[in-house]
Hints:
Blueprint: H1 2-57, H2 61-65, H3 79-87, H4 90-121, H5 127-136, H6 146-154, H7 173-180, H8 187-200, H9 204-211, H10 216-227, H11 229-245, H12 248-253, H13 261-264, H14 268-275, H15 285-321
Helix pairs in contact: 1-15, 3-15, 4-7, 4-8, 4-11, 8-11, 9-10, 11-15, 14-15
Amino acid sequence: xxxxxxxxxxxxxxRRKKRWQTIKWWNNLLISILRAILIIAISYVIxxxxxxxxxxxxxxxxxxxxxxxxxxxxxxxxxxxxxVWQFMNYPKSLLNSVxxxxxxxxIQLLSCAMVAYGFARFDFKGKNLIFGLVIFTLxxxxxxxxxxxxxxxRNFNFFGLMSKSINLLGTYWPFILPAITANGxxxxxxxxxxxxxxxxxxxxxxxxxxxxxxxxxxTFYRIMLPGAVPAxxxxxxxxxxxxxxxxxxxxxxxxxxxxxxxQAIQNIGYVILHSLEGEFSAKWLDQYASLFQNTAALLFIAxxxxxxxxxxxxxxxxxxxxxxxx
Length: 326
């Protein structure tokens, strides 16, 4: 009897385990399906505009008005790229944008790293208040400070110490000076990211450097900076992308200079149509303009996609290792 009872219990336990494994398998399958649906939906929302622009950029004006053509052009052409390339003065605009963005991003990286290191490792009066103001800059709309910034660089005299003010508009200095002082575009976020990373680094590294006779700055650039490469990569990429996409301050400081990509793509479609007047029907003017506008947008984001393609692995690793959480 005891043996039979034990066998019944064992069979019951096996059935229970098997039933639980079956339920768990179905739960995992359901979660996987829901995850796949969610990823596909998000990817569709993100990729649809890009795929639409790619398809449109190869269309002719006949394909555009042909209702049977939706994704694949009937007569693919590179005419749109040729025209947009010429009207944007793409090589020169690309070179100027890359130069400005790279210089500003590197300067912001260095200045924000120094400020963040100070917040992470040193105690001084008003530290928390000042850091709170740094974070507060993230929610300040740029439109609220555009006029003061414009007037400041229009009549720049370095806090009144110069006998005669100078006009810095039309030069790179309105971008470089805020970058040097860690007051550039989105610098509050960069300082926060680097501060969190420096706080997570062990103090034993600095103490060992001090014992070996290293000074404060030597410890910073020889010990702390090499150890903060993941955070530095993240900040540089963020800075590069935001500076690349900025057209507000670019238009404010370099008004009338179209040799930068953000300014070159503004209303590029209508500019081209106006220059090629007579080749396009007025009835489909907006649609024709979209062909050139989509082509210009692809040429604008192409360098960023290439950069991300080369830096994707380092970017993902850096995001995982940055000290964004206390």
